[in-house]
Amino acid sequence: xxxxxxxxxxxxxxxxxxxxxxxxxxxxxxxxxxxxxYASVTDEENRIxxxxxxxxEPLLNQYASKxxxxxIKSLPIPNNKFPNVESVSKLIKKSTGWSLLPVAGxxxxxxxxxxxxxxxxxxxxxxxxxxxxxxKYSNREIKNNKxxxxxxxxxxxxxxxVPFLMDYDYARFMWEVGxxxxxxxxxxxxxxxxxxxxxxxxxxxxxxxxYEFGLIKKQKDSNLLRNINNDIDYExxxxxxxxxxxxxNNVIRCAKGHSSKSKFxxxxxxxLMLTCFDYSHIQDRYYVIESMDFLYSSFKKNKELFYFEx
Length: 310
Description:
- By secondary structure, the protein is α/β, with parallel strands linked by helices.
- It is built from twelve helices and eight strands.
- 37% of the residues are buried.
């Protein structure tokens, strides 16, 4: 676990407490690998998956980015029952060299980036609102509803993140982010604990406002993949939005002027990496990129921003 230093927090804005209290976090010293026991998936878990997926399916077809739409159509991710992690992983491995690593739950930052730099993406086998989820947190109170839970579950991991890993350029981008995180944590530049903690927060903020909760300007050819044309100015590529019915609807309502709950801001890597976030509520802002290529290029050209030296 990385030291929780606040020495350089004065550089951040939007500093708010993150509500992950109670979430069980696994580190390198824990038994974090947990193969999926697909034969033990219950009818209840299949029903929850089906309800979550089918509620979101028409909205995502209309508003998700083309990278997501292409990926979801090319993978054996069913809309009516739990996915088989091994089957999905084999296709991703063949397409982009990534594989899925079945894990016991939320990984700490050190372990997450270590896994990513190996081109592995962690996937849990538990789903929100299920008996197993409730049992896991029977002695703790955490937010757990169909619209959102702060612990990434199999629905968030597989339905939202994994389709993007079928895209070679996106997969390369994720690997580059993982490599920077791994380098920061290993402190290859010898910056010391406080700067390691600070730079890791910068990278976590970047990840949050991009591949977790990012938007992209509507692309000209995306509607060719849709059943209903996108009628807002944005497309969704952030997995944290994609797996949340409440968050998707918030984006739509705000984009149509039916709500002022959240604002849309132009992507600025220096601003967003110094902007903290909140796990526990609908986001109050979304950063909008011009294109996925723009995002990839921006990260590649600005990696030095994540090696702040004080």
